[in-house]
Structure of Alpha-1,4 glucan phosphorylase:
Amino acid sequence: MNIPSSETLTPAPRTSDPEQLATEILERLKYRIGKDPKVAKPHDWLTAAILVARDRVTDNWMDSTKRTYAEGRKRVYYLSLEFLIGRLMRDTMTNIGIMDSMRIALASLGVDIDVIAELEPDAALGNGGLGRLAACFMESMATVDVPAYGYGIRYVHGLFRQQMSDGWQVELPENWLAHGNPWEFERRESSYEIGFGGSVDTVDVGDEAIRYVWKPAERVIATAYDTPVAGWRGQRVNTLRLWTAAPIDPILLDAFNAGDHIGALRESNKAESLARVLYPADATPAGQELRLRQEFFFSSASLQDILRRHLQQFPDFTSLPDAVAIQLNDTHPAVAVAELIRLLMDVHGLDIEQAWSIARATFSYTNHTLLPEALESWPVPLFERLLPRHMQIVYAINAMILMEARRQKTHTDQQIRSISLIDEGGERRVRMGNLAFVGSHSINGVSALHTELMKETVFADLHRLYPDRINNKTNGITPRRWLMQCNPGLLSLIREAIGDKFMDDTEALKDLETFATDSSFQEKFAAVKRQNKVRLAKLVRERMGVRIDPSSMFDIQTKRIHEYKRQLLNIIEAISLYDQMRSRPELDWVPRVKVFSGKAAPSYHNAKLIIKLANDVARVINNDPAVRGLLKVVFVPNYNVSLAEVIIPAADLSEQISTAGMEASGTGNMKFGLNGALTIGTLDGANVEMRDHVGADNIMIFGMTAEEVAKVRADTYNPRAIIEGSKELQQALSAIASGVFSPGDTGRFADLVDGLYSHDWFMVAADFDAYAKAQREVDALWTDQPAWYNKTILNTARMGWFSSDRTIRQYAREIWRA
Ligand SMILES: *Cc1c(COP(=O)(O)O)cnc(C)c1O
């Protein structure tokens, strides 16, 4: 047969001049969407434009895959239950360099690219920082030329949409796939069976060896959907592969024919529930069976896919650790450790020692939290019922680990118990953090402080047993989305000042330092900030009907609502400021707008109460003529990536005020700093390293250190005494408790206020005075605008190190060896 080579079939590279693009858009519109331009709706234009961009990305995607093979490159697999992607159109078009031509092409067809860009739904397949990190990493891995696949779940419903009803959070289902998803390719051929439950048989295979055969009671099919992820300049395109679940028998015909129409769909509903919704809790484990099913489902599908791909290129699995690195994003995919061993032993015939050593050389694990209550564990009976073979493997690994620990004779019985994969205190549970730790050759924290605390707290005993495994990889953010796209005004200004080098090497932003004291540059920097504030003010007016003045200081705290992040501290300080402005109107107060945005986990009572308090305080303050022009408070609903892209560039002041020792890293802090906000924050997470980079004079640090928090907690912390000793704090709390913000309902915020008096676990009272003092210093600085802009310009100039390109290079060099 005479098959033409793929070379002769490959068309000449497409130009990206606007005329060519316009022609292609019309083609897609007609032949792929079936619409005439005369009747096409904005959504149709969006889909057509994305399809054109996707085709161009696809060319580079195939080249990247070929190059990976040809160069024998190691592949990195990033397993994450969350990818908080946001929109992809601007990102992709910018990265492959067709954004300007696309704008012209669409304009020539009478379509405004900014209008259709707003129609693209956010892919919100994540809760907060952890999921956004995974998304930034995908873009950076492509940018720094690491051959990588992201693996996750294609949730039909991403993170809920947040609406306000009388100031309370209401959760509505999110429906990002309603208009289809033009970015993805369905891969029917990449399908795998995933089992649950059932029993384990043993088969004698001679030589006194036995083989285990898991006979699952239930099976579902995992099918892949691929989204290409283009790096900056488009040279490498990697794959985000998300799994969807389908039943083996879509309909039970016997049941259907017997008239049981609902029962006939039982299997189908059960399978599809696996990929239906993202669990909406941030930093607390969901604990339900469906969650464990989701974790195993995507881990197993991903590993089967990885092993299949490996065998296409290599004769066996001894080479797996050289060809493959698998990163576990938190413990959510930790069951993959047991699943890889099962596949290698039961399906591919390796013995347990071989399988175990291959697994450990292949896996690495990123820890994201120290909160003991946030560490995942599963009741042994549930784990055993759902994954009987994996339970055996966990016991087998545990026996090996505990033997090793005993042999070293350095651990007490108590320490041995803390190393065990099984928590024996009370209800027996499988500890996923310990499983991930022992199954990995590298365990990393996400900031320098967090990594040190990991060694001292959660993993102290495992760290003593394996002292060379824990390492730090401080998080980063992609400067493409979080500077170049979200802040076009600042982008132009920087290019004008220092050229384009920083676009390929973010640390070259340092060249801006010399402009920090240049008054004409300061004015231009301030003008860009003002434009961004006008843009946010417009959004706030349109969405909420509240007017905010762009000449006020925009003081912003946006992130998940959580007690440890201490939005409550910020709200109480706002109340106190309000009180002082009213009682001393003769003083020259700095006009402020306090902006909040963020979602609370639907079952998190206190977090939802904090949202209600912010809204109630906002209503009172915003309607009080005594502080008109001086103070406004707004809570912008439905925080997500696209909203963050509007809010962050408009910030003058960035609130990063978590209880020290509790925020593993934070990445919101980095986004604000990069976009020229001054940070007010505690010495927590990556704030510590931000201070080191931008300089202690250019960041407003206050409050207790992690060490002090631990010490005060261990001693007898008496929040009541502190509150009673702080006039401002006491007045603010009495105002809340007496119903100033909840007329006729004085008990509304009792859970919050009483909590502060009785235990104040998050040290709001202990840090209040220091925080209020730091805020007044911020005010003083604001009144000296040249000094203010000097500092904020230095923030932008010195935040380049926090690019996720740097983070990924460190992972690649030190963990993946890719
Ligand atoms: C960056 C980001 C986060 C993380 O913010 P932190 O302040 O680090 O908690 C959460 N949600 C969205 C939408 C983000 O873009």
Q: What stands out?
A: Residues 128-129, 132, 559-560, 639-641, 644, 666-668, 671 surround pyridoxal-5'-phosphate (CB under 6 Å). The two ends are 40 Å apart (CA to CA). The mean pLDDT is 96. The first strand starts at residue 75 and ends at 79.
